[in-house]
Amino acid sequence: MKHFAQKQHVVDLCLTLSRLGYFAGTGGNIMLRLDAGHVAVTPSAVDYHAMRPADVCVLRLSDLQQVDGDRAPSVEAGLHAGLLRARPDAGCSIHTHQPVASALALLGRAVPVPPRWQATLGPFLPMVGYAPSGTGWLAAKFARAVQPGTQAYLMRNHGILCCGRDSQAALQAVDDLEALARALLADRIAERAATATALADTAGSDALWRVHDALQERNGSPPPHPPHATHQPLQPAPSREGLPAY
């Protein structure tokens, strides 16, 4: 079988992603660059625990014509191809519906990347606007979002796509993106909780003053002015101005 080692590597990578919780069932797909003109891509609708090297498809990168493989290629082949055509430095791309990063993609905003993760992810996470899965519309939207030096992309209401110089670098980007998403969403939850607590404290204080005023009025005394609130003002969220949307 031609390209057997690379096809087996795709199967092994799918099993690793499944074990890590980033792939489930038939969800998610991979494209691996074989040479300047050909790529290997996961097949459509095949459970990764049942996949064989012969199921992995080989396509011409230029037009996605299938030249090898027993199955039909993933419907997201065009999504991956748009990235690998635009990024000759990328040797592998991985599309997942991993839980936490996919939740981050639901927010519909590009996200600045803290310095800790920039080496593997790039300076920011572009947000690709929603389009139906497996369509040329989505592939075209994604192709417009591809940036040099950016290894991770959010797709609204869909999931994420990461790339790297090889499969190991792409897998590291997937892992780091999940860690970043977990940290960002935890911060967002903490901010919301602090806001809710501050609002509850303010509402409770106002209610106490209304009771106090009512008692003062009943006793014939004018209500005093309430003291200034001691709560610290809430800090505004970091600005996302200047981050592109696609």
TrEMBL record:
One of its GO terms (biological process) is pentose catabolic process. Residues 229-238 have a biased composition (Low complexity). GO terms for molecular function: aldehyde-lyase activity; metal ion binding. The keyword Signal does not apply. Keywords: Lyase, Metal-binding. Residues 216-246 are annotated as: Disordered. Residues 8-185 form the Class II aldolase/adducin N-terminal domain. Coiled coil: none annotated. InterPro entries: Aldolase_class_II_sugar_metab (IPR050197), Aldolase_II/adducin_N (IPR001303), Aldolase_II/adducin_N_sf (IPR036409). It comes from the Bacteria. This is Class II aldolase/adducin family protein. It comes from Paracidovorax avenae (strain ATCC 19860 / DSM 7227 / CCUG 15838 / JCM 20985 / LMG 2117 / NCPPB 1011). The lineage of its organism: Bacteria, Pseudomonadati, Pseudomonadota, Betaproteobacteria, Burkholderiales.
